[in-house]
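Running low. Invent one:
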Amino acid sequence: MIDKVLRSIEHVPAFPTTVIRVSEMLRDDDYSVAEVVNLIKCDPAIATNILKMSNSAYLCPRQKISTVRDAVVYLGRNNLIRVVQTAGISRFFGKANRGYAATATELWEHSVAAALFSQMLSRKIMKREDEKLYLAALLHDVGKIVLGEFVHESFERIRELVAGRGYSFLEAEDEVIGINHAELGGKMAARWNFPGEIVNALSYHHRPDLLKKDDDETAWLVYLADQACLMMGIASGADGLAHRGLSEAMTKFGFYQKDLEMGMMQLADDLKCAKDLTGIV
């Protein structure tokens, strides 16, 4: 079965070049607005979603944004990177996932929520926002898109291991299918030529304690963001909280229960305003 799973990722579309090229352009503080606008316009789906998100309550535009140029100027570098990433990645979440009992919108909403929470963590812990962390959190469950059909076919065996024998959902996926959704997501990220930091974050977002590198914080922060969203019940799907909890994740960053609770309250408010981010699939 694992060979069949690995072959199936060959049919996953390439990662949108528009997202990669815009991100590269925006790393230069003197980026050309005109060049960024022209590049975005080359991908009508991304351009449409950028306009939709730019007018969301979450980004609070003072007046209606009706052109891509208006959006690029209004959003500024940091917001623009996140909006372009969100608009581009949404295309991978366009169908229901039978294996994880989640609709396309539910799985996407969970991904967006984790990405938003990751930036709260980044601001709290590192005193800045982090575009790589946002991207990793947004993609953390991308492996479910491919593995869902295989989980669906073997769901009763997986459920028996989880409910009857105390396996985590991840361990049950490994036992029955031969690979889990986190590891598969990492392989997809590697196929898209993402840096090792993002590949590791996807591969280990449920078990960052298995990473050999002590300084690889991205996987730990994605883990915390994912756990917060699961605890809030944000479109968690069939696996829900059936994963191993890592108490050291909080102490690693000097993060306290009250910090987590305040972040969860803020996320609940943010998601109410972010309907245009979660509704674009």
In short: The chain is about 65% helix and 0% strand.
